[in-house]
Amino acid sequence: MNVRRRSSVAALAATAVIGVAAAPAVAADPSPSATTSATSTAASGLYGSGDPQFDGVWRQSLALLAQDSAGVVPSSKAVKWLTDQQCDDGSFAPFRADPAKACDAETMVDTNNTAAAVQALWAVGGHGDVVDDALGWLKSVQNEDGGWGYSPGTPSDANSTSVVIGALTATETDPEGVEKNGKSPYDALLALALPCAEDKGAGAFAFQPDKDGKLLANADATAAGLLGALGKGLVTEAGEKTDAASCADTDEPTREQAAANAAAYLTDALAKDGHLKSALGGSPDQPDYGNTADAVAALAAQGGADRAAGPLAWLKKNAGQWAEESGPAAYAQLIFAAHATGTDPRDFGGADLVEQLNATGPAPQGAKASDKASDESKDEEAKKQEDEKKDDSPFGVWWYVGVCLVFGIGIGFLISNRGKKQQP
């Protein structure tokens, strides 16, 4: 899922026209009235200063997920902003300007924002009732083929089905057991995988069949579908290292084989330039930063971090300005790519993505306890190694203490300094 697609799909949903995979890189420029709304919501916990009309819940969910994956405890105000957006039936719309007003038939709820919110709220913890209600709504709008479209009742697509699969697996719900008409989400997803016999797009996923029922390769849908086929969510770890392979047809491809075929397609698409290209109008060579970040996470999940080394290096060198201009969701996508490849998001091409993301919204509460413990353990080990170096000195530890005393430091100060912990 990328920032580019998210905004236009939301805009399409607003006009009840769903069926294309492409979308703008960021939300539309805010109108004067929308700017006021965005400013007021930012003060109450929303990440980003742009108009939230089309992507408020999406970017908030990705921001919270990215913070959690980087060991950051999000602001309670930011979490509350997200929970307040939920409708009584459990669903989420892209943005509700007045959460106190009940959702009605005019509220454009959708599966993507709901599934992203599930993953974020499950990750931060403490909101089981909100998550349960959202999962219940997602199950209630499952299509007969086992998948989901962007809006309830629209045909299943690879992106929507995959993000819901991510919500199910994140909450320890087996997608295989979530069936409609005897079909699981994986059945719907694999039906959108192009066979290897195709001359163009072999192994890719289509967003949806076109009006003639033909499957057309789509890189955005392929990155999403690859993670969906593996049962992975927006935040994923590197998979077992495997050698790159070409597309391989079988009579009944498994989910794993479909994912491997999708990885082969993405690898070929990335081979020339190190990045994917935008499907939007304008320059045909315009880089698609968001989709490239998604592809990095997908390739790493399927075949290990080495599979994504090329596009990851390209992102480190080129994606900084895009993220700055695009906002929280873009920073989150890069953090997801870093997480999937075992890369430090605080040193991503020289940039601290976590600090940059944090700066777009309310200050986080701090670091997670496990990360604090890890940092303290590292500090203890560093202190121990420093002590050993001093003990190993040819002059002995007492010579070291004597020098300190000569300079007026004193043994008490020396011991005190050794006990200090470097703050994370």
From TrEMBL:
Domain annotation Prenyltransferase alpha-alpha toroid: ranges: 61-172
Transmembrane stretches, start-end: 397-415
InterPro entries on file: Prenyltrans, Terpenoid_cyclase/PrenylTrfase
CDD domains (alphabetical): ISOPREN_C2_like
Short name of any one Pfam family annotated for the protein: Prenyltrans
The entry's keywords: Membrane, Repeat, Signal, Transmembrane, Transmembrane helix
Highest taxon of source: Bacteria
Signal peptide span: 1-27
Ranges for region Disordered: 358-392
Basic and acidic residues compositional bias, start-end: 369-392
Name of the protein this chain belongs to: Terpene cyclase/mutase family protein
Native organism: Streptomyces olivaceus
